Write a sequence for this structure.
């Protein structure tokens, strides 16, 4: 991504945050005049930030790079959350970033053993939300990842494009925007990642929801929450999910779904685990590994960046 493109992206983000605020939200009185645009005017942002209107206009139009002190003030004026602030400074600080080296995303044996040992559905995500590994229960819960070509195994892509996985999420309207917001964060951190640009372009072309949410410039890195799953075998499941960062490679995240013991959702997961274990044993000619769950072999090695 060129310097101009990054400045333009930063300006569009500032504009989206400006449009999301009202004068009352920042302590300005309503003047009673008709507003041609939603949110704050550029003049009001400049006034609150103690900078000239001309300076702010050039920053928002992508014609000028703002200094760190100015960005700090703008983040306060626009009421940016921590994730939004990180996104803003990530864009501003990476205008000279080099293209990412095309190395493989490999999972350490120790991380794979941890995945193998989990009794809950779990997957390991890499850069761009690429799915690097999973256990059988995760495949039974969401979709059969082994039937998807390695270079297509991307969580965001499947949430938008895989009909089976999309139908499983009863709260898809909240799950899908979370994916878009996460990809927005990644775009600021790695603006020169060609595969991320390719993914965003593909989803923008194929899905109107993605286009609208991407244009909204919402950014977030949510690491926990609740997912509602509609499963054809066990019915509705209400699951907690947690994301754990792999400390030896912070680009990899272990995502685990669980249910509170004694609940119908926990009973449903237990039944699904038994079914998945039987299916897994029948589909493999080799003896099963010790324990009930184990990850699908050979994925990370053929999934290049």
């Amino acid at each position: 991504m060129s310097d101009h493109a990054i400045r333009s992206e930063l300006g569009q983000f500032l504009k989206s945050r400006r449009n999301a605020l009202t004068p009352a939200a920042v302590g300005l009185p309503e003047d009673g005049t008709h507003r041609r645009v939603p949110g704050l005017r550029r003049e009001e942002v400049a006034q609150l930030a103690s900078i000239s209107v001309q300076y702010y206009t050039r920053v928002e139009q992508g014609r000028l790079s703002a200094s760190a002190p100015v960005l700090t003030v703008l983040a306060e004026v626009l009421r940016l959350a921590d994730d939004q602030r990180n996104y803003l400074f990530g864009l501003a600080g990476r205008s000279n970033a080099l293209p990412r080296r095309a190395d493989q995303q490999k999972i350490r044996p120790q991380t794979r053993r941890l995945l193998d040992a989990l009794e809950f559905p779990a997957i390991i995500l890499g850069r761009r939300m690429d799915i690097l590994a999973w256990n059988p229960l995760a495949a039974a819960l969401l979709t059969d990842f082994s039937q998807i070509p390695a270079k297509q195994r991307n969580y965001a892509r499947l949430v938008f494009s895989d009909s089976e996985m999309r139908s499983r999420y009863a709260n898809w309207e909240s799950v899908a925007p979370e994916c878009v917001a996460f990809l927005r964060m990644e775009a600021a951190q790695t603006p020169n990642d060609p595969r991320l640009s390719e993914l965003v372009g593909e989803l923008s072309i194929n899905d109107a929801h993605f286009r609208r949410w991407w244009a909204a410039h919402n950014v977030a890195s949510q690491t926990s929450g609740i997912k509602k799953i509609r499963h054809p075998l066990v019915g509705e499941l209400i699951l907690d999910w947690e994301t754990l960062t792999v400390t030896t490679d912070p680009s990899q995240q272990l995502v685990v779904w669980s249910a509170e013991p004694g609940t119908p959702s926990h009973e449903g997961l237990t039944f699904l685990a038994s079914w998945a274990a039987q299916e897994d044993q029948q589909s493999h000619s080799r003896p099963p590994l010790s324990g009930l769950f184990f990850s699908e072999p050979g994925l990370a090695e053929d999934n290049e960046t």
